[in-house]
Amino acid sequence: MASIANPTISAKKTSGAGDNWDVTVEYDALFSAFELTTANFTYRDGFVLWEDDPFDNDQLTGVVAVSVFNPTVSPVHRKMTFRVSGDTLDTELGQEELFAVIRLRNLDLNILKTRKTGILKLSP
């Protein structure tokens, strides 16, 4: 069954007008030989951006950076980027602690795998 390995998150303030950030999530998607050759499954991935809080995390986006792919090798390195406003990221005073939850779905079998990235400290 497909799995998610080596998840990372990074962010870069965009240049130009407005207070926007490009948030990038990367991971390696791992597949079995059966998934690659015999079944030829189709997958959809994306991520949900969260702000880490001591008591209750804040969901900042829905599923973003969605794409569909058919893997032919394993692992497949995936890179997803989504532009978000500084206002969306600025949920509290001071530094924000962001993380993403990667969503990898086998569309043929409707099986969802998720994995959380590490925490990114950011000052929007």
Summarize the structure.
The protein has 124 residues and is mainly β. The chain is built from 2 helices and 9 strands; from the N terminus they run E-E-H-E-E-E-E-H-E-E-E. The protein has one domain (3-122): Immunoglobulin-like, CATH 2.60.40.
Task: Provide keyphrases for this structure.
124 residues, mainly beta, Immunoglobulin-like, six-stranded antiparallel β-sheet, three-stranded antiparallel β-sheet, 2 helices, 8% helix
Descriptive report:
This protein is mainly beta and 124 residues long. It has a single domain (3-122), classed as Immunoglobulin-like. Helices cover 8% and strands 56% of the residues. The chain contains 2 helices and 9 strands. The chain has helices at 33-38, 86-89; strands at residues 3-13, 20-30, 43-51, 58-59, 64-69, 76-85, 96-106, 111-116, 120-122. Strand 3 and strand 4 form a beta hairpin. The model has no long low-confidence stretch (mean pLDDT 91).
Indicate the structural class: mainly beta
Radius of gyration: 16 Å
Order of helices and strands: EEHEEEEHEEE
What portion of the residues fall into strands of 2 or more residues? over 45%
Query: How many individual β-strands?
Result: 9
Shape: elongated
CATH topology assignment: Immunoglobulin-like
Report mean pLDDT, rounded to a whole number.
91
Largest sheet: 6 strands, antiparallel
What gap, in angstroms, lies between the N and C termini?
38 Å
CATH architecture: Sandwich
- Highest CATH level, the class: Mainly Beta
Low-confidence stretches are none
The number of helices is 2
Number of domains: 1
| Fraction in helix | under 10%
